Amino acid sequence: MKYLLFASFLWVLALLACGQRTGSDSIVWRLDNLESIEGNSPSILGAPAVVETPEGKVTQFDGVDDALVFDLNPLAGAEAFTLEVVFRPDAGGNPEQRFVHMQEVEDHRVLVETRLTSNGEWFLDTFLKSGESECTLYAEKFLHPVGNWFHAALVYENGHMRHYVNGSKEMEGQVEFLPMSGGQTSATQRVLRPGWACELS
């Protein structure tokens, strides 16, 4: 199984990767600078800012124009994976917050998103698509307050996906997700598409 851990508090991405590869079973991307994340230099869109928090340096995105795009896909080759994200969604951003997107091609992708409600809450929306097989876990019955830190995890293995918030399973479903062979990773927008994510202040 592949584990990816994206970490960057305020948008704390815990991208935990793990899998059919030699070397380490996990990859951690801590978004604490804009020059190099674990040796990977992102393309910078807008003006994301590195700020100090009690947890250390983190990257802050405005939810409108800011994004980091990496010309690689840490999930490439994974037959199974866990994608973990530590983040803080704030009020005032786009109601549809697409903040992690990994894609080989348009019909082979992984999305982790939030949906903001009008009364200051959010819920998790995760999506896997591999050719004709796809599954959306739209957890509208599992509401959480904005302005707090959360841990989210998307797990795929043996044709089954499920997602968690703060360790509690919210939804699960069936999808046949084939290993990706390459692609890109985007933080706070969809790869090659307009669709911005969490506003963090």
Characterise this structure:
The chain has 201 residues and is an all-beta fold. The strands form three sheets. Strands 4, 7, 9, 10, 11, 12, 13 and 17 form an eight-stranded antiparallel β-sheet that branches. The radius of gyration is 15 Å and the shape is globular. β11 and β12 form a beta hairpin. It starts with a strand and ends in a 14-residue tail after the last strand. It is built from no helices and 17 strands. It has a single domain, classed as Jelly Rolls (Sandwich), CATH 2.60.120.200.
Descriptive tags:
201 residues; mainly beta; 6-stranded mixed β-sheet; disordered C terminus
Q: What's the short story on this structure?
A:
The protein is an all-beta fold. The chain is built from no helices and 17 strands. The strands form 3 sheets. Strands 4, 7, 9, 10, 11, 12, 13 and 17 form an 8-stranded antiparallel β-sheet that branches. It has a 6-stranded mixed β-sheet with strand order 3-1-8-14-15-16, with no helix packed on it.
Number of domains: 1
Overall geometry:
globular
CATH architecture: Sandwich
Low-confidence stretches: 2-23, 193-201
What does the largest sheet look like? Answer: 8 strands, antiparallel
Distance between the termini: 35 Å
Structure annotation, total helices = 0
Mean pLDDT: 81
Strand content: over 45%
Structural class: mainly beta
The value of Rg in angstroms is: 15 Å
